[in-house]
Amino acid sequence: MSRLTGKVAIVTGGAQGQGEAIVRAFAAEGASVAIADINEAGGQALADELGDRAHFTRHDVSDPASWAALVADTDERFGPVGVLVNNAGILRFGDIDKMPLAEAQLVWGVNLQGCFLGMQAVTPTMKRNGGGSIINASSVEGLGGMGSLVAYCGSKWAIRGMTKAASHELARRNIRVNSVHPGMIDTPMTQEHGGDAAMEYGATKVPMRRVGTPGDIAPTYVFLASDESSYITGAEIAVDGGVTATHAFGG
């Protein structure tokens, strides 16, 4: 396959879960991919498996210096970055009157600050080289609220808003910015919060009566990274089995 031939991409949180599926899909479609993650063992193993088409870099999305180094290294190694997937994220539950501020700030630092810094870091190279595609991972919790997820929802709604603002700012430079809103997806991150029992319960709330897999998510990212989506910017795409197509009584 060759839908992404010649494209250079950065995928944060690329060592496992949805990020790993996106990396694999990008590489299969011909892209060169920088796998950015704090999971050194998983990221390096994936890069070794994919060969010359991928490279792993340990990366802290909340650190501006780490972003500068990542973009510079990717530009030098593969060529100008043309695709950024801001996929890295963490999930923490906590009632609003009990969640420590430090834990909420950790969620915001990874999910929100990481996304902002990523867009900021790749914009200059995309401007210099005629454009690009930025794809920000939000969530169905960026489209509707959920109890005990105030910090997480706040970060995902903010990503949705930043995406729309950036899409307007960068459209004339041929830089497209879109957000993807996954529903419940069976990944190591979601498995941390209830395991298979939570997945089974979650499936009862989905119109399609199943939770998603990383393989359900990756094709949307391939499309948004490719030239097939050249007239799409500022969009929010739900990949959720129909959850956000209804209201609270529909599950």
Secondary-structure blueprint:
Layout: E1 8-12, H1 17-28, E2 32-37, H2 40-50, E3 54-58, H3 64-78, E4 83-86, H4 101-128, E5 132-137, H5 150-170, E6 175-182, H6 188-191, H7 195-203, H8 214-225, E7 236-239
Parallel strand pairs: 1-2, 1-4, 2-3, 4-5, 5-6, 6-7
Helix pairs in contact: 1-8, 3-4, 4-5
Would you kindly provide a brief summary of this structure?
With 251 residues, this protein is of the alpha/beta class.
Which properties best describe this structure?
single chain; 251 residues; alpha/beta; seven-stranded parallel beta sheet; 8 helices; 7 strands
Question: How does this structure look, described?
Answer:
- By secondary structure, the protein is α/β, with parallel strands linked by helices.
- 45% of the residues lie in helices and 15% in strands.
- The protein is built from eight helices and seven strands, in the order βαβαβαβαβαβαααβ.
- It has a seven-stranded parallel beta sheet, with helices on both faces.
- Strand 5, helix 5 and strand 6 form a beta-alpha-beta unit.
- Helix 1 packs across helix 8 and helix 3 packs parallel to helix 4.
- The radius of gyration is 17 Å and the shape is globular.
- The mean pLDDT is 94.
Morphology: globular
Number of strands: 7
Show unreliable segments. none
Provide a count of the helices: 8
Order of helical and strand elements: EHEHEHEHEHEHHHE
The helicity comes to 40-55%
For the termini, the CA-CA separation is 37 Å
Sequence of strands across the biggest β-sheet: 3-2-1-4-5-6-7
Radius of gyration, in angstroms, nearest whole number = 17 Å
Secondary structural class: alpha/beta
Give the biggest sheet. Answer: 7 strands, parallel
Query: Taking all residues together, what is the mean pLDDT?
Result: 94
The amount of beta strand, in percent, is 15-25%
